[in-house]
Protein 1
Amino acid sequence: MVDEKSVSASEPLDLIRLCLDEQIFVKLRGNREMTGKLHAYDSHCNIVLGDATETIYYLESGSEDVKSRKEKSELVFVRGDSVMSIADASNIGKTNA
Amino acid sequence: MLFFSFFKTLVDQELKNDVKITGTLRSIDQYLNIKLDNVQTDVAKYPHFVAVRSVFIRGSTIRYIHLNPNSVDTNLLQDASRREAMASSGDKIVGR
């Protein structure tokens, strides 16, 4: 029973629990994304990421092209209200075929 | 409550938020409102902060808090997360 509870994902937040100590990809408000190792989370989706890389997308005036810049942080707490989605980064960019 | 207790253990911590304020964490509450001392900001960008030495920041306005990795035990943090996840799913089963 206890084993089943710790391995299976019965509710949405369990998916995040299974990502602990793994590389994750987080989509954030304000055209931002972040990848890093998940060290902690809570029910508000507050998270702590290690060796995180943030990508910020922006438009420069007079240009149609979306540009991006990256910022790195060794350890960062991200407040849950800016988190839109969390995914296991090992699955990003892979197809099911 | 996890992050409340986590930050309570981090006295003397450098922090940054959207307007990039760096300082020493002096106190924190359940809403993750924070109080910083020894405040330093980019004076060229935010000249109105130049005289501010100590500041209260409402938790809801914070986007990120950058931490010093040397003062955080990430294994402890992961264990605490698992324990809190277990506790909250246990509550729901009991409450059913």
Protein 2
Amino acid sequence: MTHVTAPTAAHTPATLIREELDDLVSYAIHLVGDTSAATEYVVAGIAHTLRYPPPQWNQDARASLYRAVTRACRQKSSYPARPKGISRLFRRRPHPVFVDIDTQLVSKVNTVKRALMTMPFDRRASLLLRDFAGLEYREVARVLECSPANAGRSVAMARREFGTIFREIAI
Amino acid sequence: MKCSYLTLSQYLDGELEPAVTGEVDAHIVGCERCHTALDMMRSEAKRIRQLVHIHATDDVVRHLFVELDLQDSDAPLPDRKVSRAVQSQNESLPWLRAETNGAALPWSPDSPSNPTSNDDLPHPPAEKPDIGAEDESHPSALSDQHGDPSSLPVPSSSPSPTEEGSHAVPFPTLVEPEPPIDLPGNPRSDELGKHDSHGEERSSVTQEQAEPMSEWGALHLHDSAAQRVATELLEQEHSTTPLSPWRPPTIATKPSVLEDGPTTPSPRPSTVNLLPHAADSEPAVQEGQSTEKKTAFLGMDEDDESEVVLLQPGIKEQIRFRLQALMPRFARPREDDAIETVHGIGAPQERVHSAARRLLQQGSSAAGRAVHTVERAVSSMQKSRAESSFQEDDELPVEELDTARPVRRVSQGMSSGADLERKPREQEDLSTGSAENGAVEHLRGGALSISEGRHASAVAAHRKSRSTGKSGRNSLGNHMQELWKDRAPGRLLQIVGGMVVLAVLSATLVLVHRNHPTGVHHQAVAAVHHAASVSTSPAAPHPTATSAPHAAQQIALTNVETIGSSTAPVEIQDLRYGQHAGYYRVVFDLTGSTESQVTLGTDASTGDVIVVIKDARPVGQPAPLSETTTITSVHMIPPSTGVNETVYEFSVAKPVTLRPAYLLGPTRLIVDFIPQ
């Protein structure tokens, strides 16, 4: 006979997005280096996660959010999605959801950002996911669509690459 | 052990096994190279972490939620967690860190800037204590923020080996004393079971009644909140158990840790009974004995009759991670398999085999791959056991890091097995350290693939149901069908009209081009004709340079010579000069690999040398001449309108004989001016 705590209120999408929005936008900005585009990608990623939620929301929602945002940054997606195919010639592109976030501070380029932007996208993503967003290897693996062991290797390689570039350009 | 960047990185992130972490601790003491690399890695991670964080205002968030249909514009926003920027500010206050509590500060004072609200606590720490001082989510930091006297910080002589402060003076890995086991027949548990049988009493359980939760964590297989609670409990145990074999439960003074929401006042307990048929998984360990073999036990919740896994206190970190990673994926589709696999963590890998076999029998290809990966993992386990204890897989040399690139999934449904097949054995179980856990990890990947494959197939079916056409979803036919179904003939007519207009425009362009050829080809033909007129008819009118460009002037050429025959357009990239013994050389650097048609001659009136390069476009003006007595000046004559050629005029001091030639690769036109 053991005392067990029953589940309580789970994270709703609004709660989770509210909690993670700042980190998501910051992550996307440092990932793509463009503040206005990054907010657009974040909105697209959030919309994608809401449309295709993970089976286990409480466990995977955070990683799914980062995964969708990373994919949106890689594919330059926006929400609402741009019309595709030949029909895009005849359809007016819907106005993307605009999130007016003060990104003046982020627009300043320093040596760390310069070193980050010289790295490949996947390396940069893995480094930011681990060291900036604070995701575990398991979550990084889910975001980068690889195994946790490979996520660890990717993080290690990204750290080594970043260190090499940073020490080179910081002198 | 070998020095490895991968090992150091995992050590920094706290992703290593406790035993391996101790090895690294001991290694760093004597290895200056690793010590330096770890310091650099830590400082660079700190730089990344200190990048600017964005703060979205409430208006922005509300606008976003309205746009995404998450909530109405007048609805209150949910609470925001403490941003990392605020946390990073606290990093500069050493007395607010849990790791720096020493004898002078027996407890951590409550900080107004520290997250003390309940809404911060339900989230399990997302980060391993990789960075020590910067990691606010460490369980010890959580406990200290509450100023709980019962959860006094661990003295500085026994920090966690993964904390930052421990790297300056590394400590050996502490062996956690095994706490006494609270068997299911524990009177406290029985006492609590009485409360569980009544719903109202259950909701008003006091904190003292929740004490056994600190001894046993119950994990519902399909209950995420319970997993989180168990995780919190285990982390709490790890943060404090090194002090004493058993301590008063600190969970009683921190009910928010048990809660999953910020407003729930007390947890809702339930009763768990061990299943009678799970005889082999019942805790056969008595108090004081080692508990390494039995770490998870199967039980049943009396409340909703759902299966529960009981986690023993003092369970190792890897087991907790595996459970946390394993449960969500296995729980819903393959609950029995999940149970089997959980038991397989502790002792027999045959259960892992049986779980995988069961998946295979259900006909999933991803399950088949999972079985394959499990078999490989078990075989690797057998090999690894034969080797020495420290010849582990994570001793990957630094040079191999470049080759160990992450394998991207070809398809979501077939990922894990394919990944493993491409990896050598040395790279399979780096994060697990044991083959059983590696097997479970890969089996979990198989289940993940099954889940994602189902999701992908559902999405594909949804798309297929939306579009009945055979072509893709973005095709024009599907789009027109959707428009037709949506009764939007206006849009349909707009598309058809657009297509017609496009066709008419294309046909018109083709006809116009045939009748009036324009473009590079036409210009080339015109230039050839013009060049021919210059070279063959000295008396013909010829454009030449004056003060105004494109002004026509007649040039009578003598001693005309022509080399090259290509009319392909080229660029004159550079014009170089050089005095040689007996002649003066002018070199034209051209693009392309063809010999452009060049006409050379002498102006009959002035005696200057004229060089006409057909279909050539100069990049810039010619450089000034070097010291020479042969050529006095050089300048470029602008061509006539519509003629694509470049004309150079060389003023010579005395009559010369021209000797043109081509050199290929790169293409150079060489004109030697030989004084007569």
